[in-house]
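Q: Give me a protein?
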Amino acid sequence: MTAASGEAYPSPAHHLELVAAEVVRLSASFVRTHTGAARTSRTKSSPTDVVTETDIDSERLIRRELTERAPGSRIQGEELPSAGGNNGIEWIVDPIDGTVNFLYDLPVVGVSIAATVDDVVIAGAVADVLRGEVFSASRDTEAKLDGRVITVSGKDRLPQSLVGTGFSYDAERRAQQAATVGRMLPKCRDIRCMGSAALNLCWVAAGRLDGYYEQDTKIYDYAAGNLIAQRAGAIVEPPSDNELHLDIAATPAIFDELRQLVGSIS
């Protein structure tokens, strides 16, 4: 079946990818206008786990746009209570991924939206607020950056691999994670901690990082990014697949060695 233009109609999953990509782009544009003017609204799990007024306003914008494009959807966001719906679609929303970066006016800030059906992520998109890039994928399509197909780096040795990570807001857990970094540093090219799980995963998808791992991330941090990395050819292990609450994604040839090194994190 084709549309009037001659292009094939998108599958339901691809359609949700297009919706997610459009809405993250709108939200990123909104957040970008507030760069350098962040104001703290409250804190969450610790005094360092902040929420800005822009986080809340961005989520309101996303909810409004998703409700308009997919009426009846359920929306689970990071900052506001879940909103009910009965059409079988649930959106997982992170209105600003990298809030501490945003608060300090640092240039690694993302917006992430994933669509699920029966608790399975089938589409998603992540926007890089400052660079204006949009990464997206669905279960029926390849991973893309601004519509161009992307793939993982294909790096085949960990010593030549650049690895991204992040740290918990819990002080005791951070000390344990520092020990893992100490094991990793002699084994890889280098480690980067840039403050956005969603963008780290997309950078694995685009070959800008060769691997990524992080403990204690939430579903809104990784739902879209995991799918994008996987559809770009990465091996992805979500927190639900291990007892360590560890999210990990890497180009296939280095995954096992990376997983073994970070697997003793506790």
Q: What stands out?
A: The first strand starts at residue 40 and ends at 43. The two ends are 51 Å apart (CA to CA). Residues 1-6 have pLDDT under 50 and may be disordered.
